[in-house]
């Protein structure tokens, strides 16, 4: 059933319905197609629209192209060590879909998912209600842009945009820009504005950084050799904390380089501590700038320590490299207050992340924080799965490099349960344990029923 046009899904039944048509949903569809499993993929927008419509113009991957390894479709370009630009990512996904023609329906939003009382799932959409024996939720973690409540206190004349709506410096009115947040988006957008000659005020946070290259290779190459990307979430003592950690900031721009906020400051960027409040035309910042910069540097240097240890332990021939020396230090670390008008700040870019919105899933699968309780994507509700979550199983679960393994695992689980009588009693609640179900000590999230 091709995308586009008007759809009537009322009364349609499929063995499997995949909700979400991004890289996770397409990967799942590829594995199901290869296994001959009847299914349908529902996408509320269009193919690759998240990459096309919610990324800025200069956006590029921060991981090398060789890590793009969707099921049956590895990177096929001429620059494996480069970093695909936004439009190249969109093209990669389109070519992936063309390679196996998934049963993708575009422009259909799922508004409710529930058990229909007959042993099937009822999937309510804007194009009618269909049913399925099994469902894979592949909507990703970046669903709802988060704006802090303090945003309402900004003066009316100041333009505000979330990172998902930022496109380029020319989109913003003339004047200085306050960027809030130093995760990957915040640092890269601050750099984008800085390189365009804009005066940038950057409110830092606790996100760590990582060097782009060290001792002759991309750090990603070293970490891959060291097995980091193959570590499963159950190898960590603090699995929940690992899932919630901010990504290290670095960039693939212009062939890849470090993002050094200290260097930006030496070039004129105004760095501040965490944004603490807004009122009476001023922005107040916490006194943690020095601590934020030092902490980010420590993480980067600790990764280099690990690489050094790896090289020494294996007797590898790698060039030596001098360690990082800070090029700028803040004059003090006390709280500061900036008069927005005096500084000429006319716009704010909120790089404050995204939240999940799973209210449409009317099934008891979430813990007290609203996170789906699962084991490798298989939830506590039989035949309901998630795919594409950060650290669902490995570091790459929510990325191009690791989603294939998760999709293949779920395809095996789906195939094992296909053709069996549906039973919507949750095993650990019914008192009739399923022998294929993980034991309590194998869970990677609390089994609390919301």
From TrEMBL:
Residues 425-450 are annotated as: Disordered. InterPro entries: Auxin_biosynth/cation_transpt, CHP04046_FMN-dependent, FAD/NAD-bd_sf. SUPFAM superfamilies: FAD/NAD(P)-binding domain. One of its GO terms (molecular function) is monooxygenase activity. Keywords: Monooxygenase, Oxidoreductase. NCBIfam families: MSMEG_0569_nitr. This is Putative monooxygenase.
